[in-house]
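Thread amino acids onto this structure.
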């Protein structure tokens, strides 16, 4: 069994994985545990799970459409670049989870808590995925925080996309990167 410390230190982001299907039941199990992230007064998150070819095609088409509408795709070079990138990220992913967070404009503190709680949920999900032998890639793609896209994908009006999470089984051919971190004493210091 992987310890929490091992999962935090050893887990790595992976943009590549095997094409092997990730069972939806497993994704729900991980999300059910991940939702024990801390939050204040309400659970400020929603998620959409994309595993079928039909869902992947729908998501891909909606993302490309929004990229055209907002000018990210503006010529053949940008079309080629973005269609290749989104094919790899969305169509070729065994599973994708779109995470959204509740927007709470009337209360800046709760609005900030909403972002932090949803980020904690996603981190919990990452660690739990690692524990069961999955690899993930938490992306803040250009379509994240696109309010119109979130609406088209079925999120409630007061929610915004906060992350696109690619999930799969590790490819043994992909070398795991060694993590580098700044010495703790350079960023954590006594107050006085």
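Threaded sequence (192 positions):
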């Amino acid at each position: 069994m992987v310890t929490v410390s091992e999962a935090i230190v050893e887990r790595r982001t992976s943009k590549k994985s095997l094409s092997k299907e990730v069972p939806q039941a497993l994704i729900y199990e991980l999300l059910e545990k991940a939702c024990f992230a801390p939050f204040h007064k309400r659970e400020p998150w929603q998620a959409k799970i994309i595993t079928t070819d039909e869902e992947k095609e729908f998501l891909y088409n909606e993302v490309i459409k929004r990229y055209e509408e907002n000018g990210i795709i503006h010529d053949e070079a940008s079309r080629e670049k973005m269609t290749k990138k989104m094919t790899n990220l969305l169509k070729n992913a065994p599973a994708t989870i779109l995470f959204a967070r509740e927007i709470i404009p009337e209360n800046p503190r709760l609005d900030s808590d909403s972002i932090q709680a949803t980020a904690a949920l996603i981190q919990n999900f990452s660690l739990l995925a690692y524990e069961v032998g999955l690899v993930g890639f938490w992306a803040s793609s250009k379509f994240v925080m696109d309010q119109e896209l979130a609406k088209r994908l079925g999120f409630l009006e007061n929610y915004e996309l906060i992350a696109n999470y690619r999930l799969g089984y590790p490819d043994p051919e992909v070398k795991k990167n060694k993590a580098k971190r700044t010495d703790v004493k350079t960023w954590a210091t006594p107050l006085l």
